[in-house]
Structures are given as structure tokens and as C-alpha cells.
Amino acid sequence: MTTNKGSNDISDEKLAHQIGQGNLNAFTSLYERYLPTVYNRVRYVVPEQDIEDVTQEVFIAVLESVGTFRGESHFSTWLRTLTNRKVAEYYRRRNRRHETRQVPISDVETMLQTGQKTRQIMEERITLRRAIALLPEHYREVILLRFAEGLRFNQIAEVLDQNPDATKSLFRRAISALRNNLDQ
Amino acid sequence: MNKMLPQEPFDTDKLLAKFTNQVLAGENVEKDTTKTGTDLDALKETIIRLKTAFGEDELTGEDAVRMHKQILARYQNSQKEPSQSSWRKWLQNIGSKQTEWRSTRKRQNTILAVSLLAIIIIILIGMPFFLSNTSSLPASAGLQPQSITVIILGILAIISVWLWLRHK
């Protein structure tokens, strides 16, 4: 995940270790670094009214389970996995409440509350979220890495352990699949 | 970049990647987008739709501070709650799996099929007992010992099936 590194240059991994020892200031530093990325990733896949809640759950999970972070991977990779897990949990909970994944009720509520000006954007977001949700995981991931996290293609290639050409090809196929979903 | 038509998928990959970089960098690409009549046009349009719909990061500094407070409050509340014993967590886990399991229509049908099969097996097993108990003794009152055994076995079988289904 991309970061907004603040004044201090302490590594993510060191901050994670400090959080594990109960240092809430370290948590605040990591929170400031990663909030925009986590929030952005969540808002591409979660209905409007639940974005903040799911984002908060991700950071609560960081506090609760940072002890399980062994430093074998980058903290950003660990956080990305945690975020995906929390989004999946959110949808499992919602499915248990028998809410349809196709037209999220909370999204419709938000749309009704907004003015005419933003209604079109809200409608477009609902459509796009639905199309993204229907994508296979590897397609969804490459789109989120580029759009939600703002990674460049060479950075995405590193994250996915691919060469840049293969990443661009995957991205093109992902956008093509998204296009097909939007046309359906 | 749009003056050349993509010759093969490899070109399309690169052109789309470049176009995406330009869009996300905020360059005004819409004016430059020449319709090539290829799939690339549709893909470019999708890129623009994504960028337009989700736009820039909407979080303000105030939002970040408010959320930070809420996160810490929620975390501290969760720490205050008594921790559940492991057996209770296990039971809850079983319960949630059971709910998910039951929510699937296909699996409900499987339960129904297994139940019917179990009843048929019970009837088949019990049949010889019923048939052997047809001796005509018009004056006999009450139940024969064999009949009582059949009834008890039947009840036990039904209870077993019910318990098994509940456990599943």
C-alpha cells in the first residue's frame, strides 16, 4: 500500500512492533500513513454508507492482531490482506442479513439523501462497484492497486511478483472484464 | 499515443497502461482521445468512468481525526468486554457455519433427501417386525412385547435422525 510518510521516518515494521508493545502513538503514525490508502481501497468495493465503518474495522483489527505480524512480509502487504479480509467479512455479514449484493440498500439510501448534482456520480459508483464485485479476485486486485492505491505499473509488478509487461496485460484483461460486466 | 492503431494485444496493453497513467495524473485526455474503432476505445472509456466516479480522495483532515478517535474508543470498548471462553467461541463458530449452511437452498434439499432416505430405511428395517406381529389373536388386549420393541426402536430412530440433522 502507498503511504503518506510523515515527519518521522521510522519503518512500518518497527512501528508495528511498537504497537504490539502497546504504544498507541506508533499506531497513530501508522494510521496517518495508511488511512488514505485503506479508505480508498474500501470505497471502491463497499457501499457508500459503510466505507467509514469498514475502514475503522480494518484499523481496529490492526490493533488487535498486530502481534501476529512477524515481519516476514512488508507491513503494507499484511495490511492489504487484512483489508481484503475485512471487506470479505463485511459481505459475509451482509449476506447473512439477506441483503442483496447486487443493489446495496445503503448505497440507495445514500443516493436518495444526496442532491441531484451528485446523484449521477452515486449511481455510477453503484454500477461500478457492482461490476468490480463480479470480477475474479486477481482482476479486481490489479484494478484496486492502480486506482485505489495509486501504484505505478512497475510497483504493481513487484507486488504481484510479475514482470511489468505481464502486469499491463493483466490490467488490460481486467479492464476488459470490467467493461463486459458493465455491459451486462 | 492515439494516432497509431494497436497492432496486437501487446500494443493495446501498453497503450492502455499509458492512457491510464495520463488519466490518473489528471491530464486532459478526453480531447486527445481519437476514436480508433477498436476495443481500446471501450477500455479507455472504462478508465475514464472509473476516474470520474471515484475521483480523488474524499477524506478531510477532520474526518481522519474523528475516525481515529472512534477507532480508539471502539478498540478500548472491545478490550473491556469479557473475553469469551474458547468453547463458547467454538460453539458460536459452529452456529454461524450452521446458519450459512442452512441458508443454501441446495443444502436444504440435501437435508430433505437424507431425511426421506432415513425414514425409508427405518420403515424397511421395521417392516419384518410389523409383518411378524400379524398373528390373529382377537381376544388379546394391549400391546405385544414385540410391538413395544418396534415402537421404542422407531422412536429412538426418529430421535437419532433428528439429533443428527440438528448436529449437521
Helical segment count of chain A: 9
Largest sheet of chain B: none
Number of strands of chain A: 0
Structural class of chain A: mainly alpha
Q: Outline the low-pLDDT stretches of chain B.
A: 97-103
How much helicity do the residues of chain A have? over 70%
* Gap between N and C termini of chain A: 32 Å
Mean pLDDT of chain A: 87
- Determine the fraction of residues in helical runs of chain B and give it as a percent range: over 70%
The average pLDDT score of chain B comes to 73
Quaternary structure state of the chains depicted: heterodimer
From the alpha-carbon coordinates, what is the Rg of chain A to the nearest angstrom?
Answer: 17 Å
Order of helices and strands of chain A: HHHHHHHHH
Largest interface (CB < 8 Å): A-B, 41 and 40 residues
Q: Ends of chain B: how far apart?
A: 61 Å
Number of helices of chain B: 6
Strand content of chain B: under 5%
Taking all Cα atoms into account, the compactness measure Rg of chain B is 35 Å
Which spans of chain A of ≥5 residues are poorly predicted at pLDDT below 50? none
In short:
The complex is a heterodimer of chains A (184) and B (168). With 184 residues, chain A is mainly α.
How would you portray this structure in words?
The complex is a heterodimer of chains A (184) and B (168). With 184 residues, chain A is an all-alpha fold. Chain A is built from nine helices and no strands. In chain A, helix 5 runs antiparallel to helix 6. Helix content of chain B is 72%, strand content 0%. In chain B, helix 1 (9-24) packs parallel to helix 2 and helix 5 (105-132) runs antiparallel to helix 6 (145-167). The model of chain B is unreliable at 97-103 (pLDDT under 50).
What topology emerges from the helices and strands here?
The complex is a heterodimer of chains A (184) and B (168).
Chain A: H1 12-20, H2 24-45, H3 51-65, H4 75-96, H5 105-113, H6 116-133, H7 137-148, H8 153-160, H9 164-183
Chain B: H1 9-24, H2 39-54, H3 61-80, H4 86-103, H5 105-132, H6 145-167
